[in-house]
Every structure is written in structure tokens, then in C-alpha cells.
Design goal:
Layout: E1 3-4, E2 6-9, E3 13-16, E4 22-23, H1 27-39, H2 48-61, E5 66-71, H3 80-87, E6 95-101, H4 106-114, E7 119-122
Parallel strand pairs: 5-6, 6-7
Antiparallel strand pairs: 1-4, 2-3
């Protein structure tokens, strides 16, 4: 507990940090995270299936209690039905908060509702 990871996805995945999770109280990690986030930009595909598969892999190795999932588009690497089927494999007690950037997303709203999370739209 008390740690975090950030995975940015589009047509590929970028990780922060690359290996072990950061501790919330590690001020230098928060500074590095800010620089990582500042370096991100919109572009490429919206490979949600790839991102969720990576999250599922992580849950098989270590406990994950909360996911914050941000996206500015619909999945481009799968259909919504395939993504819904994959998400049934998430741990039952994992909370998923979804943030739709730039547009409303019924899919992200549904994912958040199914996993006791909040859905937020930012235009």
C-alpha cells in the first residue's frame, strides 16, 4: 500500500516508473512523475485492450486496489464487447475510476459503474 504506477497508452505503452512502483511519500518520485506527465501528448491509436491486458498481468503478480483510467477516445484495438469480456476478469474488489477527456464515453461510464468507481468527463 501507499504506492503507484502510471502507464500511458496510445499505440504503445509507456511506464512510470519502469520497474518497481513509487511510494506516495517519495517527493523525488512525484517530481519525476510530473516530468513524465508533461512529456505525454495526444497521438496515435487508443489501444485500450493492450492497456487493460497489461493491468490484468499486474494483478496476477501483486494486489491492485484502484485503477484510474483516462482516455480521449474509443478503443481502436478491439470492439467494445471484447473489452467488456476481458474486464470480467478484473479482481472483484478492484475499484476503477474512468475519466473521459474531450468527449462523453458511455463505455468508460459503464466500466466505472461496474467496478464501483467514478466516471468523470472533462471537455
Amino acid at each position: 500500500p501507499g504506492s503507484f504506477r502510471v502507464w500511458a497508452f496510445s499505440s504503445g505503452l509507456q511506464f512510470f516508473p519502469e520497474r518497481e512502483p513509487c511510494r506516495f511519500r517519495d517527493r523525488s518520485a512525484v517530481g519525476r512523475l510530473n516530468r513524465f506527465a508533461d512529456s505525454l501528448g495526444a497521438g496515435g491509436s487508443t489501444n485500450m485492450l493492450m492497456a487493460w491486458k497489461k493491468i490484468l498481468e499486474l494483478t496476477e503478480r501483486e494486489p491492485v486496489d484502484t485503477v484510474y483510467f483516462l482516455s480521449d477516445g474509443d478503443p481502436s484495438d478491439c470492439g467494445e464487447a471484447e473489452l467488456r469480456r476481458l474486464l470480467t476478469r478484473l479482481p472483484k474488489d478492484m475499484v476503477v475510476h474512468c475519466f473521459a477527456i474531450g468527449r462523453n464515453s458511455p463505455l468508460l461510464r459503464e466500466i466505472a459503474a461496474a467496478h464501483s468507481g467514478r466516471y468523470v468527463v472533462r471537455m
